[in-house]
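User: Hi! Is it possible to get a structure for several chains at once, not just one? Here's what I have:
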Amino acid sequence: MRVAVVGAGPAGVRAVGQLVRAGLHPLWIDEAPDGGGRIYQRPPPGFRRSPQALYGLEARKATALHAALDALKPRADWRPDTLVWNIATHPGRLNLMRDGVATEQGFDAAILCTGAMDRVVPVPGWTRPGVTTLGAAQIALKAQGCAIGQRVALVGSGPLLWLVAYQYLRAGAGLAAVLDTTPFRRKLQALRGLPHDPATLAKGLFYVTRLRAAGIPVAEGATPLAIEGEAPDVVAALRWRDAAGREHRLECDAVGLGWGVRPELQLADLAGVPIGFDPVQHNWVPQRDLTGRTPVAGIYLAGDGAGIGGAAVAELAGARAAQALLADAGLPVDTALVARLERRLLRQARFRTALERAFPFPAHLAAAMPDETILCRCESVTAGELRAAAAPDGPHGASPEVNRAKAFTRIGMGRCQGRVCGAAAAEVLAARLGCDTAAIGRLRGQPPVKPLPIPQPEAAP
Amino acid sequence: MTTPREADVLVIGGGGAGCSAALHLARRGAHVVLLERGLVGSQASGSNYGGVRQQGRHPAELPVAKRSHELWKRLPQLIGTDCEFVQTGHLKLARSEAEAAELAAYLDVARSHALELQLLGRAMLRARYPWLGPSVVAASFAPGDGSANPRLLAPALAQAARESGAAILEHTAVTACHHGGGRFLLETAAGPFTAPRLLNTAGFWGGQLAASFGEPVPIRHLTPNMMVTEPVPYFIRPNIGVAGGGVYMRQIPRGNIIIGGGHGTGDPSVPMSRPSPEVTLQVMQRAVALVPDLAGVSVIRSWSGIDGILPDKIPVVGPSLTTPGLFHAFGFSGHGFQLGPAIGAILCELALDGRTETPLDGLSIGRFARAALPVG
Ligand SMILES: Cc1cc2nc3c(=O)[nH]c(=O)nc-3n(C[C@H](O)[C@H](O)[C@H](O)COP(=O)(O)OP(=O)(O)OC[C@H]3O[C@@H](n4cnc5c(N)ncnc54)[C@H](O)[C@@H]3O)c2cc1C
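Assistant: Yes, the chains can be modeled jointly so their relative placement is included. Here is the combined structure:
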């Protein structure tokens, strides 16, 4: 039986672990040079910072995952640096690209563990060099031992904001301030659900306390207004408004922005898995059950690509999906393990709901974005242009949904295919049309999943 | 049953053909209702390559193409927007002597339809387009041709039609058609509609509609494979095709290069279409053979769309032979984007005046009725 696993983050590693344990030799692909995923991204060979320095409180988990990864590589058909740029089912087929060489691989069953990426709300000035996502700010540190600036402002909400801030603090990087857009009150209300996972709660409080103790300015209920600088290619300051409505100008030379993450679901989409809007996560998520099964036979999902759950959930879900695949293939299943995994997954799901309530996506910030803000940075489309395209009296009529808005304005048509701006664009459009985000729809997935370089011409015969 | 909404003319299908017809009819003061299953321009008219060319067309459709060409040039006056139509010229390349001979042979057709074409030899090609690869030996250049943004045309025509009083009903599929007592009765989820005249501009699906009026045609679905690159500096000015087909490309001033060639897959009953990864890779190879500088430029998106193709690769345009008051314009066989504006003008004349200035010889649905007659 030909089994493929896409992704070697926490979900992918644990999925492959179970498949190998059952005697299979899966095809295992990751577009990165090594496994570990974004959360446990490894530095390039030759870099020598300790796991403690790189991963902080997560060092033990990272080390364990890396050990499992390295042990599994020789027992699978391991293909790093390889992009899966298209998928088809019935018969199952993956289109791969590595070093400019395209190949194709058939499969009977596949577990897609494609992870997540940052969810951003564009702020005027966000296209200046020096502005990154929170995830990118963190990867600079983990993979390269670099900070994104010398006086870094971190803005957003969610666990990643505080984690990155703490990691920057520990690494000795200069922090100008940490601005959380969620009001303290909102978090407190939602915290009632959090005791399902006291460890995470404790970690969050620990980070905040440490930052305050180190004298880093921290604000809650903040609203970022603009990232400014004299020349167009520098960052000199962040203008923001505090919860009491006072405006401030914070001097900084780099800004990290992020409001949680969203699933990287293009492959699931191309495989035909139905995608629905999850109002709690405020994300489009592929349809799957607790076991990782989807309505498409032979396609299983695990990890953040299947709906945001975080690294701990990803490890559980990866193992669970592999067990589901084994069961469907008529191979022996570890029923005790399955029961344990499901119990823990259910507990985590309750915690996750509370977390999402504590750190909701700031749809209002996106909706209120000034007209001149560049919304789609690949195609330089402003929020105002998108709003104009929504109006029924434009030269082409109204855009009742996001793909039509894309057709008219080019929003989401660039290199990233809307992966960066899509979430915020939907809010802008929904607010203008006065309907819910779900009704706006989502940008259709189209191959290639990531840019595909045209090869050199074949030598003439 | 609810009382049907009355109109002078009903139009089924809101692609370029149908929206243009609605516009021309409304401007003539007719009460027109267009019924579209999805959004206007959501099928072939909105997903095509965007080529607006006359060069290379079958002689039977050249009169329509020429009329359309005049309308394309006047789009801003007609509908207040140019839909990004630019006359960059269309350059058709030959990669062998046989292909060069094919280009030369078309010169006679062009001359008899007063279509300006220039034949370019190797030296001239190198001088004018130094970025062409060594495989190209000759070309013919049509200076008036060009390209436009397919995502804009049908919606812009529909918007202008609305402003002129047409009713454009989207998300309104026609589920059944009846004809009797000189009137058509169409059923939709939004209720019934009735009119003495009906236009079939339902694209690929126009074949089923014609069949329901006793005029079946051997239509198949066609799903051209399309892709677009990231933006790179603007260097490919003309819209490029090749004799023998297999690859075509154009660059827009903002830098993206749109490349077509080969076919994807599709299911018109859904409707859905998707590009084929193998074809995408093959066509990338063909494109870089023509323009070696494309090596290393990234393709960022691929897609397909559904058009109807007839065996002789030209559409059905003209009155029904079974049902008075019914006029067809469908099955554009992969090259009806350019024709859309004129098709609307022609259908309007047929519906209101019973005749049109534009010769439609060779495009009648009758050609299939004859072919279908048993032999012997
Ligand atoms: C990928 C691709 C590339 C192409 N490239 C070019 C090019 O470069 N140049 C060129 O000239 N041509 C090109 N073509 C061809 C061109 O796009 C089509 O010939 C043209 O758009 C057809 O227009 P239409 O109005 O007949 O059909 P469509 O645009 O398909 O419109 C038909 C409409 O009818 C609607 N409909 C069908 N059934 C019903 C029903 N029962 N009730 C209500 N509505 C219904 C459909 O939803 C659809 O919107 C290409 C086509 C494709 C697919």
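Residues 97-112 of chain B form the longest helix (16 residues). The pocket of flavin-adenine dinucleotide is lined by residues B 12-18, 35-38, 42-45, 47-51, 173-174, 201-203, 205, 224, 226, 304-307, 330, 332, 334-338, 340 (CB under 6 Å).

User: Great, thank you!
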